[in-house]
Write a sequence for this structure.
């Protein structure tokens, strides 16, 4: 039986404070779901996090480079963080999963070094670059294509509610679960609702916000919601089905400073000159054929 823990119980298990548990959940490092307004963590997730901590490499010396990464939660980003740590080259990524828009704003304010984003510009129908050009006029930047991702409806196995379109979201027998404001997935949803002339107030659960793809998927697998907009990989190992809608572009934005240029060069070398791309192959819901392509630079 997959036991369910409260944050207090997890704090006791790992001998850390409850505040630290909530920080881990907020950053997406510990996956949780809500029951009402209370956070809960499944035993499988507790076991996964425990194993991750046991196998994590020891802290590096003062010669190590720490890179602050902020933006969208994505399983390939999680993989990148772990892959970088395993290489033992003194390079580490410190992720903060706050959504694409806030990640880009953190980069603009120089509160991080790399932003992971997928933002659709409604006017041009282009991803990411219009937002970048609008915000960054003088700052030196490099934008690298990370992956193309499938976005679609996450539903219960067998799609018992027969959900096929955005108009179905207004049905009274459906409960929707949303992503937080500022996330690329929320941008995409609101774009489609505007295109289809659907009033968000007609969607039951539109105001229900979650911070990661896995947390939305967990609500559906647990029967607490019927549908969400999300990525295909969130359905892995869960009794869920995925209805694809569109392919979106997910990019990494590097902002160069005197302080971080050595670390960023090392990270780009790691991404493009190692087996990292090979480790991404055959990942459901992703197309990494353009991975590593520099799609925009500003000096």
């Amino acid at each position: 039986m997959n036991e369910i823990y409260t944050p207090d119980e997890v704090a006791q298990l790992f001998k850390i404070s409850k505040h630290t548990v909530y920080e881990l959940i907020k950053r997406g490092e510990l996956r949780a779901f809500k029951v009402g307004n209370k956070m809960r963590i499944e035993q499988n997730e507790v076991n996964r996090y425990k194993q991750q901590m046991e196998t994590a490499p020891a802290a590096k010396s003062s010669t190590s480079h720490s890179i602050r990464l902020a933006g969208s939660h994505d399983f390939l980003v999680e993989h990148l963080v772990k892959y970088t740590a395993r290489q033992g080259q003194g390079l580490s990524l410190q992720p903060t999963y706050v959504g694409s828009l806030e990640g880009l704003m953190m980069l603009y304010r120089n509160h991080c070094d790399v932003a992971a984003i997928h933002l659709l510009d409604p006017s041009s129908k282009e991803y990411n670059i219009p937002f970048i050009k609008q915000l960054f006029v003088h700052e030196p930047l490099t934008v690298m294509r990370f992956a193309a991702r499938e976005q679609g409806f996450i539903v219960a196995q067998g799609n018992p509610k027969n959900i096929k379109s955005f108009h179905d979201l207004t049905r009274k027998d459906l409960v929707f679960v949303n992503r937080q404001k500022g996330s690329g997935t929320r941008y995409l949803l609101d774009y489609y609702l505007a295109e289809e002339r659907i009033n968000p107030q007609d969607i039951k659960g539109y105001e229900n916000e979650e911070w990661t793809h896995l947390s939305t998927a967990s609500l559906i697998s647990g029967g607490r919601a019927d549908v969400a907009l999300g990525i295909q990989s969130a359905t892995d190992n869960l009794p869920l089905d995925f209805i694809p809608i569109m392919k979106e572009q997910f990019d990494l934005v590097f902002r160069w400073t005197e302080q971080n240029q050595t670390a960023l060069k090392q990270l780009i070398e790691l991404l493009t000159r190692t087996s990292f791309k090979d480790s991404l192959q055959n990942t459901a819901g992703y197309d990494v054929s353009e991975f590593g392509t520099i799609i925009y630079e500003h000096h």
